[in-house]
Every structure is written in structure tokens, then in C-alpha cells.
Amino acid sequence: MNDEAVSLRPIAEADLPAFGRLVNDPEVVGEFQWFGWRDPERFRRRWAEHGLLGDDQWIFAVVAGEEFCGFVAARRKGMLPTAPYWSIGIQLMPQARGRGIGTEAQRLLVDYLFAHTPTMRVEADTDVDNIAEQRALEKVGFTREGVHRAVNFRAGQWRDGVFYGLLRTDLRP
After folding, report:
1. Residue 141 lies in a domain
2. How many separate domains does the chain show?
3. Which parts of the sequence belong to the N-acetyltransferase domain (predicted)?
């Protein structure tokens, strides 16, 4: 477990080069998040527009001590305006993985969503082979809800995804 304090904060302009590598460089992205090349400036434009804190998606920097370690994101979902919920995700720099930073960052994001929105539900999903992320979600208190077959296309193959949910009323570790 990482001994440095983990915190979340809005993405700063100084974070954008590292952020760009996290979404555009296959070597940095890692095996479970590389889905091919996309517009490399899309997040810079969104940051210039609203600091990556728009109406339907919030992206926060993950920091351990003074180190920018990656980001967490929450996207508003739900069919009805009276029952929105959030889907979260995380992307860490390679040197930040395996240090407990991701687990703590996701815990902080869930705490933030429950404290600052009326949502009842937060969900997350990951590749069926991403055992480290599944463990992290379970440590935060998420319940494995099932497997969606062939939900992502990556590296020339359809991949299954594991879906997790956490309710405001669930007991958490």
C-alpha cells in the first residue's frame, strides 16, 4: 500500500502533457485501455472549455504526495432525469500502478459523488481479465453484478466486461 496521501483535484494545465500520454500513448495506456488512435487534442479542447468538469462528465487528477499519477472520471448516466447515476473509471501512469493509489482514488471519487450529488448508484466496469481493477473495486465496496459478453472491441477481438455496482446504502469497508 502506498504511504503517500492520495488526493483528487481538478486537472491543471500543467497536467495536460501527462494526461495526453495516458489517453494517446499505447505504451502508457496499458493493455486494458488501448482501443486505438483517437483525436489527441480532444481532452485539451474540453479542458479549455470547462476544465474537464462538464455537466455530464467530471475528470479529476489523482495525486500522491506531489506526483500526478493519473485521473479518475465519472460520467452521468441514466434514462430518466429523476434517476441519474454515475459510471466511474480510472487511468494511472505505469509507475503509479500496483501501489494502492488506484483503490484509494476510486474510494475518494465515490465519496465525492455521494457527498455532492443525490445519486443512489455508482457503477464501474472493467475487462474480464483485469483482475487488479476487479480487486480494487471490491476493496472500495463495489459488488460484482455480472459479465457482459462482447462489450468492448480491443486488439482485434471482442472482449467481455465485468460490471460492478455500489449503492449509497451499501455497507462499505
Report:
1. yes
2. 1
3. 6-169
